[in-house]
Fold each of these.
Amino acid sequence: MPREISAYSNPLVKWARSLRDKKNRRAEGRFLAEGLRILSEAQQSGHMPEYIFYADDSARHPRAQALIQATENAGGMAVNTTRQILTKLSGKDNPQAVVGIYPEFDTSLAKIDRSTADIWLVAQALRDPGNLGTMLRTGDAVGAGGLILIDDCVDPFSVEAIRASMGAVFTQALATASWGEFLVWLRAGEGQLVGTSLDAELDYQEPDYARPCFVLTGNESAGLPADYTEACDLLVKMPMHGKADSLNAAVATAVMAYEVVNQFRR
Amino acid sequence: MPREISAYSNPLVKWARSLRDKKNRRAEGRFLAEGLRILSEAQQSGHMPEYIFYADDSARHPRAQALIQATENAGGMAVNTTRQILTKLSGKDNPQAVVGIYPEFDTSLAKIDRSTADIWLVAQALRDPGNLGTMLRTGDAVGAGGLILIDDCVDPFSVEAIRASMGAVFTQALATASWGEFLVWLRAGEGQLVGTSLDAELDYQEPDYARPCFVLTGNESAGLPADYTEACDLLVKMPMHGKADSLNAAVATAVMAYEVVNQFRR
């Protein structure tokens, strides 16, 4: 039976709301995801929320109904609440129909099995949650195994990152590691490390990429540090035909990743 | 001589701050752009701000000094202000060193000269300012002539769109039009209209693209309306290797645009 909560002062609502902050997510090991599309993606990947918040009007949607029922069947709690509370949880004026709370994943590098995919995305010191989520979404589209976050990246479990991932956070493996840990792990097995850099001489369409290919993208402002590019097997650049010589980091990753998978499917 | 303003209640500061709202931008015909990189890009493209706001610490940066001087030389007003006011203007806790105010551009389709570039980007009912700015930035990178906005798109002069464009709003032509206006204009000259759609059968690497190529991307959620795709010369899809069958709109545009320019440069 769904629990009914209409007061914003309710402790469960306050607790859920607190997961919008990174330090609370870390302390609780939980994160928020919103929207029928993302929660459905999660379900299809075998991830059920511990709590699902919905309002009366959202419950009329058949997919919401199914999600609510499936959550309860899996031992989660359904919380029938108000649109106002959904707005508070989602931080958007026009809230999604449902908000779910999920346990965070184990993001240790040791969990990554590189043999499961031909391409992996690697991001270093990424600052923008939208870029991080977009990379996860692109990773899903190109059939990547997952996203490996190097050094101090923005939190992949932030509401903004989850939203931009459009659910790919549930379908892509996710790992965090220092550069040193990553290099040791990478060189302990097969893998070609391909960095993108505006200073590279090699056009990204020139080389033959090898499986598994690790596509490495640097920080939005600074790009990759010099000693990181030196550790790459290949350093390539996308041709720049304009005045500014720059691409958004998530865009550069996608253009690069599609080149790699286009080669692989030929 | 720079004007000194330290009070947030100053009418010029209030007026500048008001340009963060679309209706004020339209009424005043002015918009805000922030940061040394974006203002330098503007200058290199021949766009000087009417006002440049800076703080004492930013003025120590040689590039900021040069921008302030060039603005005054061009008849604009330099405003020496506080970090607090810069924060208010930029809406970010960690404000950029400089904020400029520029006159909006004429975005009528008649101003577009299609013969100036081999590729043009076209977006329909785009909702996200970050996507719009990212498309401008990608347009610059691929050497596109500009971005044509169809139907009810988010404002290209919003602070978020300008920021995401990284200055490409000053290097790319920008036009707004209804679908009907656009089609009449397009068919009055040469041009191949290429739509992207998840429902398309044709792989985006199959066709031969023709100059000038107009790459059309639809709304983030709904994609292109059916009658819009029917009007395209080609309807193509990027291969989807994952579970979610989706790409961010700005990412899809970039992957498509790079395929087109890669063909052209072969």
Note: Chain B has twelve helices and twelve strands.
Amino acid sequence: MDFDEHTTLEAVMDSFRNTPDPRTKQILTTLARHAHAAVRELRPTHDEWEQAIGFLTAVGHKSDDTRQEFVLLSDVLGISTLVETINGDAHGTEGTVLGPFHMVESPERELGESIDQLGTGTPCVVTGTVTGADGVVLGGATVDIWQCDENGFYDVQRPETQPRGNGRGLFRTDENGRFWFRTVVPSHYPIPTDGPVGELLAASRRHPYRPAHIHVIAETPGYKTLTTHMFVADSPYIDSDAVFAVKESLVVDFPESRDQAEADDYGVEIPFRRAHFDIRLAPEEAPE
Amino acid sequence: MDFDEHTTLEAVMDSFRNTPDPRTKQILTTLARHAHAAVRELRPTHDEWEQAIGFLTAVGHKSDDTRQEFVLLSDVLGISTLVETINGDAHGTEGTVLGPFHMVESPERELGESIDQLGTGTPCVVTGTVTGADGVVLGGATVDIWQCDENGFYDVQRPETQPRGNGRGLFRTDENGRFWFRTVVPSHYPIPTDGPVGELLAASRRHPYRPAHIHVIAETPGYKTLTTHMFVADSPYIDSDAVFAVKESLVVDFPESRDQAEADDYGVEIPFRRAHFDIRLAPEEAPE
């Protein structure tokens, strides 16, 4: 029963031998194996182990209904984008991280409605289509949108100044697979730095900024749900996203428009900013 | 800026390049590397990733001033005993896990005093000596003791029936390096199963029991602090400790004694149980 550095792992692996669900067993044994490898390599002191316990506990304590510090930790370690990459499907638009702010339901909105309830930012019209990988238009698909305001804050971060649901909208594509809505140009922003993940970034001299982006989840039966962003092409930090989520195919121009006819169509004043983002969904079963 | 499964890790590693403290940099990059390897191997779905986030958050939320669920998680994965093994010093008594219940200060007690304030268990006298690796007796060393009662509960787990400090004592060895105290024989017990770690054990059909033991931290200037247990030799689960902490050298007989002279010396009634545990501390600087 005397364990050395390697037989301890063997005993732990063996302890999971009766796990009935094979995937659970695989997950537990794989995580144990990698965790032991990391500890054997790092050879932490007791103090370092206690610091690690304290850090993880603080991450848990910082998480609540409107803040998810473990998602943030996953994000800044590149785990979230790795999971997206693994689950990506080359037949559809590239995915990227969910982020920690998709925690309240987006209000259902009519096509063309504004998701901005503040009226203080740069007006913007976003249009796009949802199609299958084969180009077939997908009417009735849901397009869940959420973004920060022009100061870089999501509604849940500023409940005193933003009504719940500001910057959020759940749209449904028309019969031609089109969606369109009004908003304001989002700002780049720092991820929340007032928690343990902020301390981690500070200790490693990493900046906490994300380039400006609008979050999208597109979903319709028979296709894989897509979680992605449209990134604002000329945003600061477009080349050094704190959460490693930028993909070239997701970078979208937001040019200024003075097109009066289009302004009338969408009910905005000129000048306004204009973005177009087409979404291709991969089928649930990949084509042969 | 387009990351695949491997370049994501490169970008994360590179993001830590300016970390001023070399050890912090080593810890962050090593953990990131092993975490990415685990994720690449497991290829989690989004749902599984969300379950992992939810599990870690629940572990954090379960932790408070009197409960440390992350320590428990470290324990059941064998990480705690691995850290002990790595930090062990062959010149001294073997160490083992701290466990999650060393969270309140042990009350200072006189040699011979009882740490049991309930009077309902099997009386027991524990004696021992603290020496250096070379056998020199260490007077004035602190011996911090904590244990559960005869029902398997620590004071912090049963604040309504156990006074704070029951089962705990901070002793100081006499000029001959000796310590002795009265207590009751501790019981084997399940680690707390009403949290996420309990769910993990249930999902893997692992029992939650630890064999009966008394915790010890021995400390004196010039020597490495020792965190260990004395295990009760005839305890159930001595061969399948849920936290992998048993070492043969730490298993101690607790025989029954009817020695009236000794009973008088220690102020107990016969019959009583008797245990002896000698502690050798390794010097802070290993001898050449």
Note: Chain B has a mean pLDDT of 94.
